[in-house]
Design goal:
With about 900 residues, the chain is an alpha+beta fold. It is built from 30 helices and 21 strands. Strands 1, 2, 3, 4, 9, 10, 11 and 12 form an 8-stranded mixed β-sheet that branches. A 6-stranded mixed beta barrel has the order 14-15-19-16-18-17. The longest helix is centred in the middle third of the chain and has 44 residues. It starts with 14 loop residues before the first helix and ends in a 12-residue tail after the last helix.
């Protein structure tokens, strides 16, 4: 019995410290792998939240305060309300008090911007001002809204004069008040400081409104000024029911809040209003269901009832914020599943690589762990020691990766990032202990062979494979039947988003089962070959470990995800390009409302990047004889226009059939709708300038470059009268025409539109661009993990291969033969992975394409000029990753053979070598 002396150290060194010191390189490699994986896993939810929030903000900014602000307003509660009570409610204190209660009530559910929210009193009807000095475009007197807003001094800068003030005791009978106007209103309506605007009164003389100053808005695009755009500046309105479409100005006169009661003396029907502007920077995409519910409650729900209790029973609400949220939700519901596909694929490959790293460590230490089990080490104790050993390395590395992700990707929910990094750490810690438990559950000295050719799948494996097959089939059927075009079904459904991964997993399991058959079939014929390298390589390939499911699964999943992602990105780009071509009609378009100057075509042709210019004369209001809808008529040069149609792929036709001949009707190219209405007989069409032409439809096309509508006629321009025959548009083809040069050549005579600029306009939401960046990064990370899985697979067999080459060289094997041996030995699995990955990716794209609509991702709308954008296989995305797998495999095998021959064979042939 050993007596332990107090204060003496234990003679046995701690397990963890000993193992880390004995293999520092392996520990450092594991730490690096875990740190990078944790960084990517934590960065993904942060990036998704970041671009989701940015997309929501862009949607709100694009909609503008006129749609996003919540307008609450209250007119006179009752026709029988005493005048004194209604006047008291228009006083600043009463309006301000109700605003404070409403703002506090709504702010608990919807983030509001106190700086842009406002309140006040305004007229609901415009009041005509007969003053002769005011601008009158068509001789019609301008009309004004009288508005008494709060906080005018804090939202505007005085340019001339001073801010208005109200006299004491203002009421409905007050004869005159002061007001301010914006500089834009003053300029367009010919108002100056000191001008007096008279508005009609009710049972009293006209109200005289003296302008004491002009103000310039500090934030003209903010909700204070833009929630009601007339405050910022006047607008031209058309007289209702006027056949001449006469216009008049409509503006606003800004009164001080204390002057609000004077509005009761006019016919403007005053009302109190409270404008609640959402705090755009505080809105989060993941809070959208709660925000949508709050807006609905404000419009017609519990919050509106509370607002009525706080302000007035007559309060009503109006906003389009719910519609903006709905549009954003539709866009996100289509983009989300596509990003989830990449996330599932990359996550699966990363998980497989972590498991492979644990398996490699377990295989490297197989003799050590077998000896420990033989000497009495318990399975629980061994598992705990291995878990502690791995956790010491993996947990700090995962924490480092998480910290890096939080620093690099700001914004987003950190809880999801912590959970993702924690999952990586847990998997990394459990990989080695689980693999060791599976391999050393029973105490044994010699392990049975687990060659691919000799191993037989167990019943448990068969059940697991059938389960995966059922899941994959269910996911594919769900995606094909429910689809993603409606924005539902595929959204948030993990089974559907993981369909490509499940297809890859099933393919890996099937290929592993089929792989031994050709090896067995080729073994006997290969034995009759004269050379030794071929039969030996085939035999070595058959002796590969039977646990090849994980490497093959990693490669197939990565190849499937890469091909699927490449097809998605290519389909999005093609859909945008097609939509841009249809919108512009060429690589660039120079168009004016009137006939273009005679020398413009030559100036445009000399611009950099321009290859050809096709002149087109367009009459947009062609009127067929006998009535019916108007139809645009384009006059073109048949030869040049046919070449343009072939270049753009829009409605190609034979130019000879469109050429005008003699005095007969002009041959015409028509849309299907026009052809159905007028048939193939001749009919007359009156053009915009009153000239008549006779046409006969000879060809029908769905689209044509010159006109983007559903109805059109295209005729030979030489057969048109001189006036309509002058070009109104130039369709430019070329390699990236210079936008600046084209605009300089056009001057002010025409508008220039470029295909490249139209292409860029379709990416108008950070939700689109952010999702594409995340998708590209996920595919690239998956490819990197696939290469790492390939390296781990070859690294696992490296010691055995080195020993084999050393022994064979003692028997006369040359270095060139050794290289060929390793390359040929690696080729069967590499070719299996490449061919299987290509076929699996092709099948996944073809199976899932009916349920995936790329239109919203491509053009940020549910419809596109080019029609529905569907997912199609991209040959480059299919072949390049597969060829890369073969190239990397061959390169690594050749490098290993070269290095083994360079370092010598003494160490590999030393006595007692167990390999």
């Amino acid at each position: 019995m050993t007596v332990r002396t107090p204060g003496r150290a234990r003679p046995v060194a701690p397990w963890v410290r000993t193992r880390l010191r004995s293999a520092p390189g392996a520990a450092a490699a594991l730490a690096l792998l875990v740190a990078v994986t944790a960084f990517l896993a934590a960065a993904l939810p942060l990036a998704v939240d970041r671009y989701g929030d940015a997309g929501l903000r862009r949607s709100l900014e694009a909609a503008g305060p006129g749609r996003t602000a919540v307008q609450l307003y209250a007119s006179q509660d009752s026709a029988f309300m005493p005048y004194e009570e209604w006047e008291a409610r228009l006083r600043p204190d009463a309006v301000r008090g109700a605003y404070a209660e409403v703002f506090a009530l709504a702010g608990r559910f919807l983030p509001l911007d106190p700086g842009q929210s406002s309140h006040g009193v305004r007229t609901t009807r415009r009041l005509a001002a007969p003053d002769p000095y005011l601008s009158r475009p068509d001789g019609i007197a301008p009309e004004f809204h009288l508005v008494a807003p709060s906080g005018l001094a804090g939202h505007a800068r005085v340019r001339e004069g001073r801010l208005p003030a109200a006299p004491d005791g203002v009421d409905a009978a007050t004869p005159a008040v002061e007001a301010a106007v914006t500089t834009e209103t003053a300029r367009k309506l010919n108002i100056e400081v000191g001008s007096v605007v008279h508005v009609p009164g009710v049972e009293r003389a006209p109200l005289a409104v003296r302008v004491t100053g002009t103000v310039e808005p500090l934030a003209p695009r903010g909700a204070y000024w833009s929630a009601t755009p007339v405050l910022r500046g006047p607008s031209l309105l058309t007289v209702p029911g006027d056949p001449q479409r006469s216009v008049f100005w409509s503006g606003a006169l800004l009164l001080p809040p204390e002057a609000a009661p004077v509005l009761l003396g006019t016919g403007g029907l005053p009302e109190r209003y409270w404008t609640l502007a959402p705090e755009v920077s505080a809105l989060r995409a993941h809070d959208l269901p709660r925000l949508t519910s709050a807006v609905a409650s404000l419009e017609a729900g519990p919050l509106l009832r509370r607002a009525r209790a706080a302000a007035s029973p007559a309060v009503d609400a109006e906003t389009s914020l719910g519609e903006v949220f709905a549009g954003y939700t539709e866009l996100r519901s289509v983009i989300g599943p596509l990003v989830a596909v990449a996330a599932f694929g990359t996550g699966t490959v990363a998980a497989v690589v972590l498991l492979m790293a644990g398996g490699l460590a377990a295989d490297r230490r197989r003799a050590e762990l077998t000896l420990l089990r033989a000497r009495g080490a318990s399975l629980r104790g061994l598992t705990g020691r291995l878990l502690a050993e791995t956790a010491v390395v993996a947990v700090p590395a995962a924490a480092l990766g998480l910290a890096a992700a939080l620093l690099v990707v700001d914004g987003g929910r950190s809880s999801y990032a912590v959970a993702a990094a924690g999952a990586v750490a847990l998997l990394a810690c459990a990989a080695l202990p689980l693999r060791a438990v599976a391999a050393h559950r029973a105490v044994r000295v010699h392990a049975a062979r687990d060659d691919l050719v000799s191993v037989r799948p167990s019943r448990r494996r068969t059940v697991a494979e059938l389960t995966l097959l059922a899941l994959a089939a269910g996911a594919v059927v769900a995606l094909r039947t429910r689809g993603a075009p409606d924005g539902e079904g595929a959204s948030g459904d993990g089974l559907v988003s993981s369909a490509p991964v499940l297809v890859g997993m099933v393919a890996a399991l099937v290929l592993v089962r089929l792989y031994p058959w050709p090896l067995r079939g080729l073994a006997r014929p290969a034995g009759r070959l004269r050379g030794v390298v071929g039969p030996l390589a085939l035999a070595r390939a058959g002796r590969a470990s039977g646990s090849a499911v994980l490497p093959l699964l990693a490669l197939l999943t990565a190849l499937t995800t890469a091909a699927f992602g490449g097809s998605v990105l290519t389909g999005v780009a093609d859909a945008r390009d097609r939509a841009a071509v249809l919108a512009v009609g060429a690589d660039a378009r120079v168009e004016g409302m009137r006939p273009l100057p005679s020398g413009l075509a030559d100036r445009v042709r000399r611009a950099p990047g321009v290859r050809d210019v096709t002149a087109v004369s367009v009459s947009y209001d062609g009127r067929p004889a006998g009535g019916g809808p108007t139809v645009p008529v384009a006059g073109v040069d048949p030869a040049g226009y046919a070449a343009l149609s072939r270049h753009t792929g829009i409605g190609a036709f034979d130019p000879d059939g469109l050429k005008a001949s003699g005095s007969g009707p002009l041959p015409a190219l028509a849309s299907p709708e026009v052809a159905d209405r007028h048939g193939t007989g001749r009919f007359r069409v009156r053009l915009d300038d009153g000239a008549d032409i006779t046409v006969r439809i000879v060809a029908v096309r769905e689209r044509t470059p010159a006109l983007a509508g559903l109805d059109f006629l295209v005729v030979d321009r030489s057969g048109l009268p001189d006036g309509p025959g002058r070009p109104t548009a130039l369709l430019v083809t070329g390699d990236r025409p210079d936008a600046g040069a084209l605009r300089e050549a056009a001057g002010g005579a025409a508008q220039v539109r470029l295909r490249a600029e139209q292409f860029a306009k379709y990416v108008d939401s950070p939700l689109q661009s952010g999702a594409e960046r995340v998708y590209t990064a996920a595919v690239a990370a998956g490819a990197g993990y696939a290469v790492l899985a390939l390296l781990l697979t070859l690294l696992r067999a490296a010691p055995e291969r080195a020993a084999l080459l050393a022994r064979l060289r003692t028997m006369g094997l040359t270095r060139a033969q050794g290289r060929r041996l390793l390359v040929l030995e690696s080729l069967p699995q590499a070719l299996l992975a490449a061919a299987g990955g290509t076929v699996t990716a092709w099948a996944a794209v073809r199976l899932l394409s009916p349920g995936i609509d790329l239109t919203t991702v491509a053009v940020s709308a549910s419809s596109s000029p080019a029609g529905r954008a569907v997912l199609r296989t991209d040959p480059v995305s299919l072949l390049v990753p597969a060829l890369a797998v073969v190239a990397v495999t061959v390169g690594i095998a050749a490098a290993q053979a070269w290095w083994t021959g360079r370092v010598g064979s003494v160490r590999e042939l030393r006595a007692g070598d167990a390999r």
